[in-house]
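Researcher: Here's my situation. A collaborator sent me these components and asked whether they could plausibly form a single complex. I don't have experimental data yet, so a predicted model of the whole assembly would be a useful starting point for our discussion.
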Amino acid sequence: MKKKTHLGAWLKPGISVLIPLLIAFMPAEWLHIPGITPVEQRVLALFVLAALFWILEPIPIFATSVLIIVLELILISNAGLQPMRQDATGAALPNLIDYREIMGTFASPVILLFLGGFFLAMSAVKFRLDQSLAAVLLRPFGQKPKRLLLGIMAITAVFSMFMSNTATTAMMLAVLAPVLPLFEPGDRGRVAFVLGVPFAANIGGIGTPIGTPPNAIALKYLTGENTIGFGQWMSFGVPLVLVLLLGIWLLLTTLYPARTPALELKFKTRFLRTPKAYIVYATFVVTVLLWLTDFWHGMNSYVVSMIPVAVFLSFGIIGKEDLKNISWDVLWLVAGGIALGLALEKSGLATRLVTLIPFSGLSAMTVLAVAALVGLVMANFMSNTGTANLLLPIVAALGTSGLALESTGGIAGIILGVTLSISLGMSLPISTPPNALAHAGGDIQTSDMARAGVIIGLAGLGIVFALIMILSGTGFFN
Amino acid sequence: MKDSLVKINTEWLKSTYFSDTQKRIQLKAGEVLLRQNQHNERLFLVIEGQLRGFLNYDSEEPFEAFRSAPNHFVGVYSYFSHTHQSYSTVIAETDCEVAYIEGDQADVDGFGFAEHFLPVVVEEIYMRQLLTQKMTIQNQKTTRKLFHSEKMAMLGQLAAGLAHELNNAVGVIKRQGEHLADWAQTLVQQGGDPSAQYLFRKGLEQGSSTSTADARQRRRELEERFDLPSSVARQAAAAGLDDADMQSLGKDAAEKLEQFLPYFDAGLAFHDLNHAADHASQVVRSVKELGVANHSRRIPVDIADTLRQATMLLKEELKGIALDLKTTPAMMIEANPGEVVQIWVNLIKNACEALRESGRRKPTIAVEAVLKEGDKAEVTITDNGPGIPPDLMPRIFQPDVTTKVEGLSFGLGLGLSIVQKIVDNLRGKIAVESEPGRTVFTIRLPVAAKSPQS
Amino acid sequence: MEKTYIICVEDQREVLNTVLKDLEIFEGPFFLEGCESADEAEELLDELDAQGDYVGLMVCDHVMPGKSGVQLLIDVNKDGRFRHTKKLLLTGLATHQDTIEAINQAAIDRYIEKPWNVEILQKQARILLTRFLFDQGLNYEPFLPVLDKETVLERLRRMG
């Protein structure tokens, strides 16, 4: 146990608070941003505060989100603190943000889309659909470790498209737990299995808009002509997941080949055949089908996502107690990111900052490469959602920078590229909760994870570039 | 058997019916007056000597039915019943003279013969019944005593066997633990670092000498004053490190402690191992003493000496308790001194525990030894504790280990039955009186002949 | 930051030392405290509660002078402040009746006989502490190295 000095205990919160305060109260000229308004200066301070709080985590990251929303309401909303609403001469400040819009982030469509996803996942777990489905789906993969690993990874990825990455990892690691001791001592194949699950869960999140929170944040910036539907997302997301998954499988089986000849997974569960269980199965299938066919029936994915909420609550499949178990922290974490993006956009700070960067002579691909790399590195050391919260509003502002964006298919290409790259950050136990879970089992070393994780991150980045090129080449973004 | 229910005028009956000197029989001791089932039409009156009636059933021992002294009637049943058969064999205990009458006697004095003898018949029936009852009670008592002693003997055997086995095991644990401790100490000493040596010795010799409450207080001090992390501070506080110890560790105390506290733990482990082994063998010894009568040699013992020894042994337990010891000099009993000391130790220890548990404000134990009735040494041990719960009183001398469930210590469970065992062996008596605030154990032991008369 | 404590209550000092030693593996993420009587434990509980700290697990001896371990746990069970605190009873004297009483009245989570097997004690403590963190709604991540993996996985899966 390391000694915690008083200095160390106060260092993180100290820096995280002092620097933003400094930015907020220093004379505007010192910032060297021409034409910056008082509101923009405050937003800049808020942005720095958010960045420091999400990176250093002096308080839980979802608390940071709520803190941002509340500070925005007080400092830059039209219903905020009176002195904050006027300039030195007493005239009302322009560019103040409507407080209803800031509060509305708590219930913005992407949040509700996620809520619908949570309801599907919770009811699936409650009626053991996850376990029974896993049992059925794993059967064709047999007992040979190599094929079995592919099966486990495929199922993990599919599940994590609809469930949270963490819950999927937890479920699959639990399935795996009784099998791990069957590996002969010293068989590195064990490492492949333990790494395969969190990696597949991280990757699987890419597959659907509700797979992982960064996707939802991206959707928030893909509006107007850039709107991407649920089915559209899956049309490129699922193939990307497939390619990445196969790549990871090959990598893991090469790095950590299994010597044990056969492994048998045991499942105790069967499909429940109660009326409620059937309602769960049917709602699940219908919701997914509706998501995929929005072009036909006209309801967008946000509207569709409210259907399972109503069905499950009406039939008592999700009760009062279950509501308490909803991951409100994830929803509010996303809401904070949306509110931050809102402030950056509405105050005009995002546009102003982007104009400061000399983009002339830079190609859109270079910008994407830099932004994606930054996203990947950040996501390795901090929460993926936090990374998306910080990076995507800036990236989205690039659309107004006058940069030539044809090569990436417009700003949508860059936003997608960065979002997908963020999900590739998985080289350390702290990178994602699934990684932490796998590492906590004690079967793998951090170095095992880092070796495979770095290769996946860099190779994945290349594959994501290729995807964006193909998409823009095929006119997907038009 | 003097108890008589019916008023019988024996003298009058004697002079009226048994005056015929022809109808007298002289019996030598051992001669038979009547045999069981013999035909008899005579009613006998004992003039002199003792007779006894026996019943013979199958092959069993003859069973005593009655005893007759002068002025008692014999043959009442066979005479008055129509069977005319004697139901018992009547044998003279001493040389006897009996008078008798035969067949139906004429009325005397205008009253019927039957009326004159009715009281005699009733008396006879009553006496027989009384005898039977007394013998049944006697019998029950004997059976109970036998049962108890058999139980104790069995428990004793069991205890002895158990004690033997456990003693061997505990002995090995203790000896090997000491070996290991010696070896570890040598290793630590060769290892060189003085802090490690110091902490190891501290653990081994002192054990955990700090109470958890004090340790918690100290832990906070250490955390604040020496800036120790919580887990290190907890262990350092438990180790009882004082400021001097901390100062001697120098600047990087936290790092050093983290490195060397395991040495204290190791020393403490050996200390606790030893302590636990001692405790186990003490319990084993108690169990053994309960079961097996101690046939050791008895010598004259001064009660006052044994009381002083016992209080010495209990110095630690008696801390904070006022002890009032009054003895009579040179009061000697024949006993094994160790056993006598044990009586006092067990009783005083119980009192200490009772006082400590109750958290009484002025805990006092009074011990007084005086000579009573000229030949009894009476020792009273009085405490002002909470008293023994009334429901427990009938059972306190039983070797009932389960009393521990109710929060009583093992010592009371077994200790008192050991005390009773020893007192019984010394042909003494133990009694207890208890009410809240006053519990008195009184032990009386017969003093040896040469004790001074007070 | 609030601390989460493990409190061991045992009147015999040597035994207390052994219990604390066996539970030392949890020290770091958790905090360890020893008490020699039920009264002392109750004082400590009040104190920790006043500081805003949590008590994740109580490991109690059964037979103690004064208030027994079962009675202490019964009282803790009734105390709303420690609703989620897990309770483990160590006993050298397990009669059927005591067991029933302890389980029914004190809602004991685990019952371990003396002399205990250190691995069993640690495993059970691990499970109970993991449950406490989830029941109390605390962030499990800082504690992950000393938690029961199976329990963590099950609890996380349930969140969907």
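Model: Some features of this prediction you could bring to your collaborator: The mean pLDDT of chain A is 89. Chain A has two domains: 12-106+328-348, 109-327.
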